[in-house]
Amino acid sequence: MGLVVQKYGGSSVADAEGIKRVAKRIVEAKKNGNQVVVVVSAMGDTTDELIDLAEQVSPMPTGREFDMLLTAGERISMALLAMAIKNLGHEAQSFTGSQAGVITDSVHNKARIIDVTPGRIRTALDEGNIAIVAGFQGVSQDSKDITTLGRGGSDTTAVALAAALDAEVCEIYTDVDGVFTADPRVVKKARKIDWISFEDMLELAASGSKVLLHRCVEYARRYNIPIHVRSSFSGLQGTWVSNEPQGDQKVEQAIISGVAHDTSEAKVTVVGVPDKPGEAASIFRAIADAEINIDMVVQNVSAAATGLTDISFTLPKTEGRKAIDALEKAKSVIGFESLRYDDQIGKISLVGAGMKTNPGVTAAFFEALSDARVNIELISTSEIRISVVTRADDVPEAVRAVHTAFGLDSDSDEAVVYGGTGR
Question: For a surface tag, which of 241, 321, 403, 408 has the fewest beta carbons within 10 Å of its beta carbon?
């Protein structure tokens, strides 16, 4: 008997019919001889609706009570799903994140998992039950308060439970048939990938691909948990994410795995920074002390006449105001002239492990953007990724142009998006 962890996103359990459809799939896995643990997100747009409600009550809802509110969504869906499974003649028990043993740090709204102690889950499985766990949540190791894990938290919950329970696979069910060479909402001819390495998936996730979040993939790589990304709306095979190909999948990986894009970032430019040792350190220390994660960083060549330079970096739009405030407070120490903030940008990234040994990839990438008349503002590279920042309005056309230029377009049926959110 194998142990399988399944995760269902909000679009999969958006309504009563969706919950009943998911329940049938779970029961089928149980009938196939597996022990089954299910991690479930809140129904549809429930979390967004709760956030809107909180903002109507309080202009800046944060902290303990905000987490207490948001975790209600998953508790509703887990209980309803357990009821639907019981109606099909199988026993199911639902558990909150804390009951499932998901232990986190004390950072509200974006807590990180410290440990998973799934004693009650193991007991439920030993008794022949299906275990339903509320995703996106845990309990603080120090304060014992309820915490939420932030964006993609349910995926991370699922992989963490799979690791703690030594599961054979973690199945992530969403509203597309797997991981595609680009977002099928933007590129209709995007092609489904049968297998992708953890390394390439991490780069795609970090570059804006929303099917799997970076934290989830990193956790899976650390504990070597194979992930199978599938649609809950079809019975098709999805995409395997692992160290090695599964079964008869191709051993030799393609040069390019895919094209990712991200329009959730903003750009901050620190203008007139003295070009001397320690200045960049002061800027990024101020950002780090404000607990802000940054992405791309570019420093211009300093002007000979003034000895001043500009430093630009990208960060989540949601952190923009906090970053500007932090830099303004440190202005007397750093000594820059002014700050510029731009939230109308987008990032396009080309990802593939084969890029390392194939000359001409960089040239073809920039030629495709040039032919599409897309202007580039920032450039960042790694061994398996090239990323550029452009105007947000140029992103869809840029993604399609690069996708076509590298022969990634499918010559068969167009990709199907069963839901509307990608989660």
Answer: 321
